[in-house]
């Protein structure tokens, strides 16, 4: 998938921020509890010296009332501080629409819009709230630039700007009221001939890319899963999943034979030019391929092959219902910049969309260190998947050094 996970941008900062704010919230709560108890202990155990007889209580009652009022004010102040910190952590109300240089279209999109008939009886909502990534607040200048356009006119040719925002955690992007650039699709072939045939290079948008031709793309190693992956006529891409080059290369028919209950729909994470989905389509299995256009027009190329591209980063929750896929395939797109907590969130989302008995195919995942491989192995074992196939192999890279790769086919258990 065009190295989605290798360019996280500011996305990793969210975990640091959340962790810091959570620690601060815990310290504030602890301080509040200790202070409250000390005031209460003082109020109910303090006996001021007085010449008056014990049966005169007005002074003591007044003192206790003052202490209780002080305690209540302290609790109220702490609750307000905690609520404000929660908003900062979650990103709520963090975008100040009154600040200068905010695009008018962004203001209009983010304003809350009341429902014309009042409260909805089924959902209970009273207004429509725009969907936008909370990390967008950290990229307000770029976001305002993205939302500066002519309403009902042509959208600026700025897809690379939108993708930059996505890679910085600003996902989902706000919707726009302009018409996208139209690129004529020339020479499209009918399915299934489209799976292994090229179309005119004029069918792709090359703006914002270093290469301006498919030949240029095939001359480069765009990422670990895409070296010459646009050569679907004469290159090795034509042999992938049907002819193995190493013990880590599993054959697609062998993997499908391990499944139970049949294979109908699948999800490919980091699918490169869509070859995995093409092989599955030949076997009457529908596969959705998640990709971004990092250094290449991956989504357009996948669509030209008659396949289903999904323009999505791995920081986004998968827009699928629970337990819907028979198979999830992932290669090095699973690498999320070495952040173990991000990989854990990702693995739980993969588990969510995979049905019980479904297969998770980890395909030639690069283990840069033994610690990384052990951490991934330990994470996978926490899910209780059945190991149908598990291979750790070595390869010699271009520099003559040995690299370790993990390939596995795992079956999701039935949990009750």
- Counting DSSP E segments of at least 2 residues, the number of strands comes to 11
CATH architecture of the largest domain: 3-Layer(aba) Sandwich
CATH class of the largest domain: Alpha Beta
Residues in helices, as a percent range: 25-40%
Tally of contiguous helical segments: 11
How far is it from the N-terminal to the C-terminal residue, by CA? 35 Å
Helices and strands, in order, run as HHHEEHHHEEHEHEHEEHEHEE
Shape assignment: globular
* CATH topology assignment of the largest domain: Rossmann fold
Strand order of the largest sheet: 7-6-5-8-9-11-10
The description of the largest β-sheet is: 7 strands, mixed
Q: Name the structural class.
A: alpha/beta
Folded structure, characterized:
- The protein has 416 residues and is α/β, with parallel strands linked by helices.
- The chain has 3 domains: 9-48 and 59-90; 130-182, no CATH class; 189-411, Vaccinia Virus protein VP39 (Rossmann fold).
- It is built from 11 helices and 11 strands.
- It has helices at 13-45, 58-90, 104-110, 140-146, 159-167, 214-218, 252-256, 275-281, 298-304, 340-353, 370-382, and strands at residues 113-114, 127-128, 221-223, 226-227, 265-269, 286-291, 308-311, 325-330, 354-367, 386-396, 402-411.
- The protein has a 7-stranded mixed beta sheet with strand order 7-6-5-8-9-11-10.
- The chain is globular and about 95 Å long.
- The chain starts with 12 loop residues before the first helix and ends in a 5-residue tail after the last strand.
């Amino acid at each position: 998938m065009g190295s989605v996970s290798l360019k996280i941008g500011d996305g990793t900062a969210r975990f640091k921020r959340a962790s810091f704010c959570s620690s601060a919230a815990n310290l504030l709560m602890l301080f509040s509890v200790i202070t409250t108890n000390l005031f209460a202990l003082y109020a109910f155990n303090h006996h001021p010296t007085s010449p008056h007889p014990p049966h005169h209580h007005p002074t003591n009652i007044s003192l206790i009332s003052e202490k209780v009022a002080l305690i209540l004010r302290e609790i109220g102040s702490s609750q307000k501080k905690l609520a404000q910190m929660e908003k900062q952590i979650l990103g709520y109300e963090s975008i100040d629409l009154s600040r200068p240089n905010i695009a008018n279209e962004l203001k209009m999109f983010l304003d809350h819009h009341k429902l014309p008939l009042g409260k909805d009886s089924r959902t209970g909502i009273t207004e429509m709230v725009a969907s936008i990534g909370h990390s967008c607040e950290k990229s307000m200048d770029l976001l305002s630039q993205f939302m500066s356009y002519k309403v009902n006119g042509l959208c600026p040719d700025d897809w690379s700007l939108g993708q930059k925002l996505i890679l910085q955690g600003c996902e989902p992007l706000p919707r726009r009221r302009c018409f996208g650039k139209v690129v004529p699709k020339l020479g499209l072939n009918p399915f299934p001939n489209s799976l292994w045939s090229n179309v005119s290079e004029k069918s792709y948008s090359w703006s914002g890319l270093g290469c301006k031709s498919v030949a240029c793309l095939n001359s480069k190693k765009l990422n670990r899963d895409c070296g010459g992956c646009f050569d679907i006529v004469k290159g090795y891409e034509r042999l992938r999943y049907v002819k193995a080059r190493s013990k880590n290369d599993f054959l697609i028919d062998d993997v499908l034979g391990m499944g139970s209950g049949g294979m109908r729909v699948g999800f490919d994470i980091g699918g490169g030019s869509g070859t995995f989905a093409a092989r599955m389509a030949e076997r009457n299995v529908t596969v959705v391929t998640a990709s971004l256009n990092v250094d290449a027009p991956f989504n357009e190329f996948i669509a030209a092959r008659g396949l289903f591209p999904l323009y999505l980063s791995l920081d986004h929750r998968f827009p699928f219902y629970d337990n819907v896929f028979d198979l999830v395939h992932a290669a090095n797109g699973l690498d999320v910049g070495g952040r173990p907590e991000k990989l854990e969130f990702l693995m739980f989302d993969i588990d969510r969309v995979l049905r019980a008995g479904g297969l998770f195919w980890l395909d030639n995942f690069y283990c840069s260190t033994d610690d990384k491989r052990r951490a991934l192995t330990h994470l996978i074992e926490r899910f209780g998947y059945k190991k149908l196939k598990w291979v750790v192999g070595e390869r010699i890279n271009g520099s003559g050094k040995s690299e370790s790769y993990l390939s596995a086919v795992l079956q999701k258990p039935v949990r009750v």
